Recover the amino acids of this structure.
């Protein structure tokens, strides 16, 4: 599904290359549904990206075209990663940029998981 100027899924995007093992990453967790790895330019003491294994360009694409099993598996993986990182008690922030207005840079759906500090206001203007 093409949305918000992202176009169809590009198998040469950087996260597709990470999924295929063509580019290294610092893996936190991996299962059938998801891969979690540290962001290369962290914006918080903990900044991990969680991506589905399937070829979805964005949240809009994932939420409309992924199977129920993929959506459930991915969502549970995000929660599991937060627990693995020890963030449940202090709390954390999930964020997904969708399309141009949000400044989505990588056209493979991903959730940012931030933690390890007080994160401040939700949006800076
Ligand atoms: P977004 O703007 O939501 O698409 O975020 C893309 C994120 O991917 C940014 O936070 C980048 O720092 C991160 N990123 C880009 N390339 C890599 C990479 N090779 N390994 C890990 N994180 C990356």
């Amino acid at each position: 599904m093409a949305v918000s100027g992202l176009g169809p899924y590009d198998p040469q995007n950087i996260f597709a290359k990470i999924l295929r093992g063509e580019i290294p990453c610092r893996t936190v967790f991996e299962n059938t549904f998801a891969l979690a790895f540290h962001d290369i330019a962290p914006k918080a003491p903990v900044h991990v990206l969680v991506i589905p294994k399937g070829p979805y360009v964005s949240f809009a694409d994932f939420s409309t075209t992924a199977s129920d099993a993929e959506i459930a598996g991915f969502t549970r993986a995000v929660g599991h990663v937060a627990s693995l990182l020890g963030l449940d008690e202090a709390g954390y922030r999930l964020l997904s940029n969708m399309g141009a207005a949000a400044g989505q840079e990588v056209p493979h759906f991903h959730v940012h998981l931030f933690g390890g500090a007080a994160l401040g206001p939700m949006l800076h203007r």
